[in-house]
Design a protein that fits this description.
The protein is globular. By secondary structure, the protein is mainly α. It is built from 18 helices and no strands. The chain has a domain of about 120 residues: putative deoxyguanosinetriphosphate triphosphohydrolase fold, CATH 1.10.3410. The N terminus and C terminus are likely disordered.
Length: about 425
């Protein structure tokens, strides 16, 4: 099997330095969406624009153009081989980050349509929300965060911003994808305002171009965050049942999902597993989305926001679950955490995955010459903090497959060196 580098870091051509205009409004023509939007929707014509001025498309809104740039990015393609819950190669049926992101985007677009807000922006934020994840899911992120605490640690939202503003190299004139302010805002703040200790990449970019970190994002980004919750609750149930981590009888006892499971069994009796899952997910997902529509509609009617700015300046989220549903969702998440995320079939491989990430980081920092040449060129002398940041970015961009392949390649090289020199590796860092 051939493995490919996650992405290529090259020195940018001099054309990048020729752009001197400050970020601001979009350069025309600005394409208007075909359907009228609500007064509180985020409207393309009112966009705060792109950091680097570009002439807009005559056939796409600025947000649909952002969506297309994300879909064509290297980071988005790599989501195909990044873990959602199971290590990517364990089975063809289980979700990866890519399939999860597509499901979130579908839900976000549907919910956005319900409130006459910008569907393209909601979809764009949904497609981008997982770009910054490491290989091996949250276990990989925990491991990378632990070994990089001295340089600020690792946060997947912060890394997603770093990807779309710096590490993606598709254009001759600038680093990143040059997405609109509203997409960047949604990417960073879809879970709410960013306060307290702000991750370095977010704080640094905010100094260059303020993302109003203390405010809520637009309704489109709030909707994308809820779509993420709905999608992963449902597909975790799907994947957990298919993998045999819990049985239908266990699920009947679960909060929220149990009532839906009972209703399916009462209506159809015994079903083959695939049909049972399909019926269960259909009714559970409908209940969750209907609750969001009802609760969000009530909040909007009470707040009466007259603009997207009013959504951002509101003291709390205007999109959300009802209190009763939120409690049920949190209880179901606890059930899934115990029955799925803490299951030995999940925790065992994830502990091994942590060792892979930790070992890779230690070996590459100790010997940057093991990096591909284009990455090595970005390192500073003597394993300093700049080298550690390069290694952090390199590992974060890996797929599960590539991380395992690199780990075995580097381990083999180190073992070969030890045998040739007659030494052991007991004193090695990582």
């Amino acid at each position: 099997m051939r493995y490919h580098r996650p992405y290529v870091v090259l020195t940018m051509p001099s054309a990048k330095g020729q752009i001197s205009a400050p970020p601001g409004h979009l350069l025309g023509p600005v394409f208007a969406p075909p359907m009228p939007l609500a007064p509180f929707a985020t409207k393309p014509a009112d966009s705060r624009g792109r950091f680097y001025p570009e002439t807009e498309s005559a056939t796409r809104t600025c947000y649909s153009r952002d969506r297309d740039r994300i879909i064509h990015s290297s980071a988005f393609r790599r989501l195909k081989h990044k873990t959602q819950v199971f290590v990517q190669h364990e089975g063809d049926y289980y979700r990866t980050r890519l399939t999860h992101s597509i499901e979130v985007a579908q839900l976000a677009r549907s919910l956005a349509r319900s409130f006459a807000v910008d569907e393209d922006l909601a979809e764009t934020v949904a497609l981008a929300h997982d770009l910054g994840h490491t290989p091996f899911g949250h276990s990989g992120e925990d491991a990378l965060n632990a070994v990089t605490r001295d340089i600020g640690g690792f946060d997947h939202n912060a890394h997603a911003l770093r990807l779309v503003t710096k590490l993606e190299h598709r254009y001759a004139d600038f680093d990143g994808l040059n997405l609109t302010w509203e997409t960047l805002e949604g990417l960073v703040k879809h879970n709410g305002p960013v306060t307290g200790s702000v991750p370095g990449p977010i704080a640094g970019f905010d100094q260059r171009w303020s993302l109003d970190l203390q405010d809520w994002p637009g309704l489109e980004a709030q909707i994308a965050a809820l779509a993420d919750d709905i999608a992963y609750i449902n597909h975790d149930i799907d994947d957990g049942l298919r993998a045999g981590l819990f049985e239908v009888g266990d699920l009947v006892q679960a909060p929220l999902a149990g009532a839906h499971a009972e209703a399916v069994r009462a209506r159809y009796g015994e079903l083959e597993l695939s049909r049972f899952i399909g019926e269960l997910i259909r009714t559970l997902m409908s209940a969750l989305t209907d609750d969001v529509r009802g609760e969000t509609g009530n909040r909007l009617r009470e707040a009466k926001p007259g603009s997207a700015a009013a959504i951002r300046h509101h003291p709390g989220a205007l999109a959300g679950f009802s209190d009763v549903m939120l409690g049920d969702v949190q209880a179901l998440k606890r059930f899934l955490y115990e029955r799925m995320y803490r299951h030995p079939r999940v925790t065992g491989p994830m502990e091994e995955a942590k060792n892979v990430v930790t070992g890779l980081f230690g070996a590459l920092v100790a010997n940057p010459a093991l990096l591909p040449p284009d990455w090595l060129a970005q390192c500073g002398p003597g394993g300093d903090s700049s080298t550690r940041r390069v290694v952090r970015d390199y590992i974060a961009g890996m797929t599960d497959n590539y991380a395992l392949a690199e780990y075995h390649r580097i381990s083999s090289n180190l073992s070969g060196s030890d045998k040739a020199s007659g030494t052991d590796d007991s004193g090695r860092d990582g």
